[in-house]
Structures are given as structure tokens and as C-alpha cells.
Write a structure and sequence with these properties.
single chain; about 290 residues; alpha/beta; D-Maltodextrin-Binding Protein, domain 2; 9 helices
Length: about 290
């Protein structure tokens, strides 16, 4: 229960605390089990309550899927698509993809939830998001992979930076210059930590941030370098910046995964949008292979 206490929940529902408590007790009697732990400072769902909440969320999801199927029968696609995504997808990639989809299906609405790689998976398991497009997910327990796209780490720097003219960028060169790192919960940082784990060099950032946009802007004000994946850079028109792949001898290639919760039947609009993303990302990956 998000409110955390009977009193707060009752206020939200315009009920007295005693009236809400009676309703809960009556439901628990009919259900045959308690669903809350009563704590000194509030309540929280017990394991039975968590299972029941998951069941209700699944029922709501199934109802939404049927509604979108019925709307399709009339020839007018309606519905809502919720997607959890890595922040690298936010500035360029997703706005274009959503606009393209809505051009064909203006009755479909969207919500975009920017999440780190662990939170995106939680969104799927709680039905907070239908889809996740996330770089280097953590657990993969409830994550059904629809598509995996390789994303090598790139260095981001001012075009006047001494490394900007190099034909090959080595990680040691980046670490010998002032560098900015994403925070620990982001997949790019995870891969960089793997890269230095057995070496003599260490990550010694002058600055850490949880925003790639901030890091891209900051490198223009100091002779520093940042790190990002290419899908977060494609579409950028910033002529003051240079983006170059770091040698794959130094940093492992990560993967951007498109996925949904295992076993869930998606609403029509979400399933069609997932297919659009898969087709576009597959074409983009094939084009990058041809250029390599």
C-alpha cells in the first residue's frame, strides 16, 4: 500500500480510518487470509498481499489488452503504451519512434518512464511499464528478451580535445585525461568498471553524474571526456562535440535489450510498438555492421 498507513489511505479515499479498517478486515475474512502486516507506525503488504496485488495488476493488464483488441475490430487503434527506458534513449531515439507510431495511430497515448537498469526490470514485474528498452539489465529473472542490440562504449569530447584526431581511442588514453563518469547504477559505468578490474589503471573521475545530457554539455567547458552508447548520440547536431568508439580490445561491448515481462500477453498497441522498435533497431544494427 503506497500510503503506508490506514489513516493516510483513508484520507486519500475520503473515509474515516475506522471505516477503511473495517473494509479491509471484511475483505480479509472473505479472502481467507490477512494481507497486511500491522506495524507500530503503519501497515505493509505481507507475502499474501503481494501475491494478491500482483494478481490484480495482471487482471488490469488483461482488461486493457482486451479493450485494445476490441478497438482494433473497429479499425481505429486505441490504447496506451508505457515504456521504461534507459536515459540514453530519451533525447533522440524514442521521441522519433513515438512520433512515427502516433502518425499512423493518433488514438494511442504513451508514457515514458526513464529508469536505470534495475528499476526498468522492476517496472515490468509490477506492470508499471509494458515494455523496457534498457542497456545492460541486471537480474533478467522476469525479463523476456524481444531483441538484443550491441552497443559499444563511445568517448564524448570537445572537437578541440587532443584525443579528437586519433584514429583509435584506447581506454588508457581516456583515463589519463580528466574524465567524467556516469553513476554506478548505469550500464556504461558497469562496463567501464569491468574493463579496469584486472588492470593497473583505475577510474578516477573529476565528476560523476546520473545524466548523460549533463555530461555531454560539461565536456565542452573543460578538457574532459565522457562516455556514452551510440544510440544516445545518433541524431545529435552538436557541432562542438566528437564521438568515437573506444577500442573493443579495452572495453567489452554492451547490449541494449528490448523486453517485456515473461509470460505476459501485451495489449495490441504495446505489442505493435515493440515490433516497430525491433524492426528499426534491427535495421540500425545491420547498417552499422555494413559500415564496420
Amino acid at each position: 500500500m503506497r500510503a503506508g498507513s490506514i489513516r493516510k489511505a483513508a484520507e486519500d479515499m475520503n473515509l474515516t480510518a475506522s471505516a477503511l479498517n473495517r473494509r479491509i478486515r471484511r475483505f480479509e475474512d472473505e479472502f481467507g487470509a490477512e494481507i497486511f502486516e500491522r506495524l507500530p507506525r503503519g501497515v505493509r503488504l505481507n507475502p499474501a498481499g503481494e501475491l494478491l496485488l500482483q494478481h490484480f495488476r495482471g487482471q488490469v493488464s488483461d482488461l486493457e489488452r482486451v479493450r485494445s483488441q476490441v478497438a482494433d475490430l473497429s479499425g481505429v487503434r486505441r490504447g496506451h503504451v508505457s515504456i521504461a527506458c534507459s536515459q540514453a534513449l530519451q533525447p533522440y531515439f524514442l521521441p522519433l519512434q513515438i512520433a512515427c507510431y502516433r502518425k499512423e495511430h493518433p488514438g494511442v497515448t504513451f508514457s515514458v518512464n526513464v529508469r536505470d537498469r534495475a528499476a526498468a526490470e522492476r517496472d515490468l514485474s509490477t506492470f508499471s511499464s509494458d515494455l523496457a528498452l534498457v542497456f545492460e539489465p541486471v537480474h533478467m529473472v522476469e525479463f523476456e528478451v524481444l531483441l538484443s542490440v550491441p552497443q559499444p562504449i563511445h568517448v564524448v569530447m570537445s572537437k578541440s580535445h587532443p584525443l579528437a584526431d586519433k584514429t583509435e581511442i584506447r581506454l588508457r588514453d581516456c583515463l589519463e585525461t580528466p574524465h567524467i563518469l556516469p553513476t554506478a547504477q548505469l550500464g556504461v559505468r558497469h562496463l567501464l568498471e569491468i574493463a579496469v578490474r584486472d588492470g593497473s589503471r583505475q577510474l578516477t573521475p573529476i565528476l560523476e553524474a546520473d545524466s548523460f545530457e549533463f555530461m555531454r554539455h560539461y565536456v565542452k567547458h573543460e578538457g574532459a571526456v565522457g562516455f556514452q552508447i551510440p544510440i544516445g548520440l545518433e541524431g545529435s547536431s552538436d557541432r562542438d562535440l566528437v564521438f568515437k568508439e573506444i577500442s573493443r580490445r579495452d572495453v567489452p561491448v554492451g547490449h541494449l535489450l528490448l523486453g517485456q515481462m515473461k509470460g505476459r500477453a501485451l495489449p495490441v498497441a504495446s505489442a505493435r510498438f515493440a515490433n516497430q522498435l525491433a524492426v528499426y533497431l534491427g535495421q540500425m544494427d545491420a547498417a552499422r555492421d555494413r559500415q564496420a
